[in-house]
Amino acid sequence: MPGPGTLHWRWAGEVRGYLLLVKAGLLQLMHPGLGAGVAQHSAFFDEPWERVLRSVPEIQGVTFDWPRGAETARRIREYHHHITGVDDRGRRYHALDPEVFFWAHATIFDALYQMIELFDHPMSEAEKERLYAESLQVYRSYGVSDRVVPPDWSGFLAYFDRMCREELVLTPAARGLVEFAKEPPATFPLVPAPLYRLLRGPTARPLWWLSVGTLPEPVREIVGEHWTDRDERRHRMLRRAVSACWPLVPYRLRYTRRARQGYARAGVGPTGVATSRR
């Protein structure tokens, strides 16, 4: 399992990962089986923020609950045992089918990779191979078949591209997420209501635009978003600004609570250096 000294330990706890949250969620819900599972077995659209705030820390726990991350992975697997049904195409699905479960994992791995690549630094080929190999350790800890899993980075790129071009569709759940992203709910659990009311309107469209800029082009076409050269230039400028300013952000705001707890418990910080509890 990824632990101190790994790339996952270094990067997977960064709050910058939330910049890719809409992308990862949308790609998941565009998978017919995943979209149906969320629509039929989840209260996501009744309490979207609450579900996200429950799910993300558990997923991070597979890394940051080290050395007991495998226990967290098994707990996540158990959450999905009962999720089965028929999707909108009339096909049966189960959340633990590897075609479904690995796609969910793939979108989370892609978000981690894109966070580093877009908002920090261009990764070397060796880094990409290493990050992907670590992600396979995470996936296998769930105890789900790996028969559909690409063996290496280049295989993953081909798999991801094929899924975006040939398998993803605008499911009802995905359409709901697009509407949610453009017009967020009236409350957010972590922000005082008066402040959230001030921020909600002015920030919704820019945050959706930020998310559109991270989507693969075939997915943009499916959701009906046009991306211009000017959009790309502006997006690149924003990414550079985030990268330049990020070292100035205080430690407690740079890393999620689950990551900080893991660093403190292990006595090893994100860069692998021994650290005291902060």
List the SSEs and their pairings:
Layout lengths: L6 H5 L9 H9 L2 H10 L6 H17 L4 H11 L4 E3 L5 E3 L3 H22 L5 H16 L12 H15 L4 H11 L10 H20 L4 H7 L5 H17 L5 H4 L2 H10 L12
GO molecular function: oxidoreductase activity
InterPro entries: MPAB/Lcp_cat_dom (IPR018713)
Protein name: ER-bound oxygenase mpaB/mpaB'/Rubber oxygenase catalytic domain-containing protein
Please, could you describe this protein's structure?
The chain is an all-alpha fold. The chain has 14 helices and two strands; from the N terminus they run αααααββααααααααα. The chain has a two-stranded antiparallel sheet with strand order 1-2. α4 (48-64) runs antiparallel to α5, α4 packs parallel to α14 (257-266) and α6 (98-119) runs antiparallel to α7. The two termini are 25 Å apart. The mean pLDDT is 92.
On the 0-100 scale, what is the average pLDDT?
92
What series of H and E elements makes up the topology? Answer: HHHHHEEHHHHHHHHH
Characterize the main sheet.
2 strands, antiparallel
- Tell me the number of strands: 2
The rough form would be described as globular
Placed side by side, the strands forming the largest sheet appear as: 1-2
Tally of individual domains: 1
Strand content: under 5%
Query: Helical residue percent?
Result: 55-70%
Radius of gyration: 18 Å
Structural class: mainly alpha
Give the low-confidence spans: none
* N-end to C-end Cα span: 25 Å
How many helix segments?
Answer: 14
